[in-house]
Write a structure and sequence with these properties.
Elements: E1 2-9, H1 13-24, E2 30-34, H2 62-76, E3 79-82, E4 84-89, E5 94-99, E6 103-114, E7 118-120, E8 136-138, H3 139-147, E9 156-160, H4 164-175, E10 179-185, H5 194-201, E11 208-210, E12 212-218, E13 225-230, E14 243-246, E15 249-252, E16 256-258, H6 261-265, E17 290-292, H7 303-321, E18 341-346, E19 349-353, E20 356-357, E21 365-372, E22 376-385, E23 388-398, E24 404-409, H8 410-415, E25 421-427
Helix pairs in contact: 1-2, 1-7, 3-4, 4-5
Length: about 425
């Protein structure tokens, strides 16, 4: 059986960044296992620009962004196994995979990084009445058809859901000559970035119908029309508000789910909110030696944040595999006693990543990312350690579609030795 210091499952932006970080942290043998026959993941079909503003300080397309990481991974000596599907990760960190060339094979890992990305929520999760005609696509599937296979899904389009992929596809379909009648969103706010609403809808005169949903699909062989109605505060359609939109295509952009069947089978504890793994300050899951990053952990809005998070996961996985502590922690002097602080959320914050922190093992500075549950204006993002508030920062606007973050300092947590929890919340003053 082959043996590697770190094995990364997934060759998208998270997997590539984690692999590079693991190699640069001293691991001699790092393997990326990817089920596709090429690296880059979802970025290969994202031909629009806007990637890399934080990482490279310039606008890149998705393939360009992925290519930079792929080139770097080859430069530092990362190994790859493409066209391989991982089927199991055992408790002793043996990764079993299958490929056409090798059949079923196993790899012994010193540490494993989960970077499988996410998947789209399908029509079956929506319970929309009607037959199952042709012409219903998830936005990501439609994006692949148009950008990679040169196929047009349809000409008269309605989009349900205002996630970023749906917004981007509204613009893409318009540029390809299709007519996008509207984007309907169940919630009273958009699930996408503000810049995508402006650049993909407003600039092309495509209406965004908030608090609306599709209630019926017409057509047996092919979509002929959809009915869209307003919804009340309980998200139930309001009788008498239905409007018929003739179309041949319905695109669904109704949410992304971390791809965690493999994680669940490996015994990794999952968050009921994000549906991704619960992780500590080193992005280690409940299974020792198994780390997680990127959209398999929680759905990100910017790939730059994915890369930053994956870099941290790769470094921590490398130091686990090499038997070291977190790279920024001083090894000399007396060791700090283990003290795990729970990260809890209140008053508008949905979740945090990570969910626990051991101050003695964290880096000098730790980025904690979170999302809010509604649109808020002129609120303070506050952090409490025990009963003491250590951060109080005003934000003009917070929205569910945009990830937020706070940076915690190790010294602040060590100073408050009697605290048992950290609370992230929104406050009005």
């Amino acid at each position: 059986m082959l043996s590697y210091d770190v094995v990364i499952i997934g060759g998208g932006p998270a997997g590539l960044a984690a692999a590079i970080a693991a190699r640069e942290s001293g691991c001699e043998r790092v393997l990326v296992i990817e089920r596709d026959d090429r690296l880059g993941g979802i970025l290969n079909q994202c031909i629009h620009n806007g990637f890399g503003l934080h990482t490279f300080k310039e606008e890149l397309t998705g393939p360009e962004y992925a290519a930079r990481y792929e080139d770097r991974a080859h430069e530092v000596g990362v190994e790859f196994s493409l066209g391989s599907m991982v089927i199991d990760v055992s408790s002793d960190l043996v990764v079993h995979a299958v490929s056409q060339e090798r059949g079923v094979y196993g790899v012994q890992a010193g540490a494993v990084v989960l970077a499988m990305g996410c998947r789209e929520r399908p029509r079956g999760a929506l319970a929309i009445p009607g037959y199952r005609p042709a012409g219903i696509y998830t936005a990501g599937t439609a994006q692949r058809l148009v950008n990679m296979e040169g196929q047009m899904p349809g000409r008269e389009v309605v989009i349900l859901g205002s996630g970023d992929i749906g917004l981007i596809m509204a613009r893409r379909m318009t540029l390809e000559g299709a007519h996008v009648a509207c984007v309907a969103e169940l919630m009273p706010y958009s699930g996408g970035l503000k810049r995508n609403i402006v650049q993909c809808l407003d600039d092309y005169g495509i209406p965004l119908l908030l608090s609306h949903t599709v209630t019926r699909i017409e057509g047996r062989k092919r979509v002929e029309a959809v009915w869209i109605a307003k919804v009340d505060e309980q998200r139930r359609p309001i009788p008498g508000t239905e409007v018929r939109y003739a179309c041949d295509t319905l695109m669904l952009s109704v949410g992304l789910l971390p791809e965690n069947e493999l994680s669940r089978e490996a015994g990794v504890a999952l968050s009921p909110v994000t549906r991704g793994p619960l992780v500590d300050e080193s992005l280690q899951t409940s299974v020792p030696g198994v780390f997680a990053c990127g959209n398999v952990l929680h759905v990100h809005d910017l790939v730059d944040y994915v890369s930053q998070e994956a870099d941290a996961a790769g470094r921590c996985a490398a130091h686990y595999a090499l038997g070291k502590r977190s790279p920024d922690v001083q090894e000399d002097g007396p060791a700090e006693a283990e003290r795990v602080l729970l990260l809890e959320v209140e008053s508008g914050v949905r979740y945090t990543v990570p969910s626990t922190i051991d101050p003695a093992r964290m880096d000098e500075r730790l980025t904690v990312r979170f999302r809010v549950d509604n649109v808020y204006r002129d609120r303070f993002v506050s952090v409490y350690v025990g009963d003491e508030r250590i951060m109080h920062r005003k934000k003009r606007v917070l929205a569910p579609g945009e990830m937020e973050e706070v940076v915690l300092k190790r010294a602040d947590l060590l100073e408050r030795a009697h605290a048992e929890r950290i609370v992230v919340k929104l406050e009005e003053d």
